[in-house]
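ok trying this again, last paste got cut off
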Amino acid sequence: MSQVKYEQIGVAMTCRGYEEYIRMFDLMESDLARGPILDVAAGGSSFTAEAKARGYEANAVDPRYGNDVTRWVEEAREEIGTSTAKIAKIAEVFDWSYYGSLDNHRAGREASLIKFEADVNDPSGQSSYVSGKLPNLPFADGTFSLVLCSHFLFLYAEQFGLEFHKQAIAELMRVTMKGGQIRIYPLQALNWEPFAQLDELLTFTRANGGNVQLLPSKLPFIPKKSDFIRISL
């Protein structure tokens, strides 16, 4: 398996939907209802739009959000085609028990983008999308009860090393309120190997007041063990 790798240059602007977030982070209604939610490095995902439609207070942050909305959407649309072609070349390594097929996987991305596009083009929705990036987020201390980070930390381990991850974790903890939680998925890089310095990073997190647990994700897809980190403050 280590011979196979998802090829990616730079950080992709991907689209994932609400149900995928619920599964990958094993979220319960009680987790979502406690207070403000932040999706970090959210890209073109519709989680924020769908969470708000369900009555939750949700926000998204991504460095691309500082540009014209049309550019965000177009980049996300292009990424759907690009990523689908890449996945097709190595489709046999993935667990398709949730998505069912490559076509369904793509359709889900496209449906997510439609919801994302509608929300960011709605004057009442745009304020939920804030330009910012790790390790310096534009939010006050203790703003959010639940902070989610999907497919950024650990995934791009070749681009971002241990020091960046320490700074990023510290920043996620800073913007999370006491009694709140941070959840990060997945824990593997693009070659599906675990982050080499994960133990050191978890030690750092605990030393800075985070109660850390590694828990099984309920979103089958990636080839190897699928866990997420839950940090409770």
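PB: full thing came through this time. The two ends are 36 Å apart (CA to CA).
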